[in-house]
Amino acid sequence: MKMSKLMRSRLFIALVIVIGALVLVLPQVLAHKMLLGSDSIFHYNRFYEAAMQLKEGNFHHFITMYSFQQSGRIINALYGPVVAYFNGALLLVGKTWFNYQILSDIAVYLLAGGSMYALLRKCKLRVSYSLGLALFYLTTYAVQYWTLSQAFSGWAAALLPLCLLPLVTFIVEKRVNVLELALCTALMFQIHFLTSLFVVMAYLPAFIYAFIKTPERIKLLQHMALAIGLFFLLTTNIWAGLVEVYFGNTVLQPFINKNIYGTAVSLSVYRLSNWLAPFGIVILGGLQIILLLVFWKKISTLNKIVSLEALLFLILSSRLLPWKWLSQTFEFVNILQFPFRFFVPYTVLLLMSLGLFATELKINGWVVIGALAVLVTCSFVQTIQALEQSLAMWDEPEEFMYQKNTTYFTDDTQQIKQAFFSKDLALGLYYVQKSTPDYLPLYTKLTDQDEIHGYRHYRKQVIMQEQKFTKTATKDALVYQWDAAEAKEIIVPAIGYKNTKVVLNGKTLTDAQFGHTRIGALKLRQERGHNRLEISYIPAKTTVVFLVLPTFVWLGCLGIVIKRKGYSREDDAKFNYLSAR
């Protein structure tokens, strides 16, 4: 096999991306230190729940049986259940939290590199350009956000490029590929709801362009309707979970960021945001604007739309907008929480745009390859340095992890750290507990004085009380047992929703026989002596059907994709004709 052909082979491309991923995790492997960011404990509880359900074969879609203080809360059903089980499987393979962290980082890097490469190749970029930009993407903060802070949007960023494939189809082919559009949109919806909204925002201008330009508008609309219908079939598990929980309960939403302006990207050179790392992205952003202004008339429609969308997302992510006024005037804006999240689609669209500029302006290939080599090298060095700085925090006695709203059940810092290297996966989550109240059922409206997000209530009613009870996860129910010196009403650190079934000492309680605190903890009358409480969740029968349905729809769609090998041979030749250059 000739060297040029070898370098264009899929095996070689995959190998380079794998090497890039391994290089980025190597500093942590060598340092043997953990990174515990702001979202780590919350997501690690989610993944531990999924891991234990897989290990024990004890599947409960709604209530938590093993994690979150074994409180019976509903989390995963409302927040990326499929990805939670994937991470749970990684955790079982890794056996320790440290090993899991390495494996999950590698997984994110491989997905990010592969999906960016696929998107750029669909844009007809050369293999070398696509590979170089894909490697650079691994170092951007959009992807690094998972590594450094365990923010789940990092998983969304990893697959966002793949989910933008329909955007290219809209503009270049002026049609709707039903299967492609439905699968890409559903994939992101299964991972991260907010990022799926960004995907739709990116689709919209491209679809409008296709609608205006195509002579087959009726067919376009018909195919769009089919794609939307298929999307709902692929995501009924998410919709069923939302309807099941939200229609019967008043659910506490993730916290409202009162400083939304402060979390927008600052473009000032005196106050560069983390999202502007590596610094090469600032240079690329400035270069794109210059190229767009100078060569507007010479570039393709695809490049024009992609470039303008990139600039739109950049503006949305920045302090150029009056975010404080917007959040106070329009309540729905608070769903965003952090404007910097718009920087994720900006990053992807920026790299698309620059790759298209390099191709369409017919810049000397060796010059572009040389520039990419320098860019990737510098960005890897900067990213590794940032990683080493973050890892150094592990040696700090008080700042080794994010501590806000966190309760420690030992004063021995070394004991906490060692727990995350232990094969007892529950140990670290016992020593470090965070009072995140997301998705708790509200029975009394919380006031600002009550800390509207319920952190204090959850800590007091659940975290600080749960050690008084012995808890066991069985096939049928989550069982609480305790001994009481007297008969009286108590608060049990178990969360009850509308369809939560409560059995106390063998008797199923009616709604009138027990109560709830304002965040849903059960209030019931214990008996003197030994007490046994069983809680389970009984969803509607239709909910169960819709939870199972997407599995068969996904398998059917993926079977079609495999049969077609993603694209027909004719399409493959059409989109990859630059490979030989």
Characterise this structure.
The structure is a single chain. The chain has helices at 3-7, 10-31, 40-56, 81-94, 97-122, 127-139, 141-149, 153-163, 165-173, 178-191, 193-213, 217-234, 236-246, 280-294, 301-317, 323-329, 343-360, 365-392, 413-419, 425-431, 455-463, 541-564, 569-575; strands at 406-408, 432-434, 470-473, 478-484, 488-495, 500-504, 507-508, 515-516, 521-526, 529-537. It has 581 residues and is of the alpha+beta class. The protein has a domain at 164-251 and 541-581. The strands form 3 sheets. Strands 3-4-10-6-7 form a 5-stranded antiparallel sheet, with no helix packed on it. A hairpin with a 4-residue loop joins β8 (515-516) and β9. α14 (280-294) crosses α17. It is globular and about 85 Å long. The chain starts with a helix and ends in a 6-residue tail after the last helix. Residues 569-581 have low confidence and may be disordered.
How do you describe this structure in short?
The chain has 581 residues and is an alpha+beta fold.
Layout of secondary structure:
Elements: H1 3-7, H2 10-31, H3 40-56, H4 81-94, H5 97-122, H6 127-139, H7 141-149, H8 153-163, H9 165-173, H10 178-191, H11 193-213, H12 217-234, H13 236-246, H14 280-294, H15 301-317, H16 323-329, H17 343-360, H18 365-392, E1 406-408, H19 413-419, H20 425-431, E2 432-434, H21 455-463, E3 470-473, E4 478-484, E5 488-495, E6 500-504, E7 507-508, E8 515-516, E9 521-526, E10 529-537, H22 541-564, H23 569-575
Antiparallel strand pairs: 1-2, 3-4, 4-10, 5-9, 6-7, 6-10, 8-9
Protein name: Integral membrane protein
Keywords: Membrane, Transmembrane, Transmembrane helix
Organism: Ligilactobacillus animalis
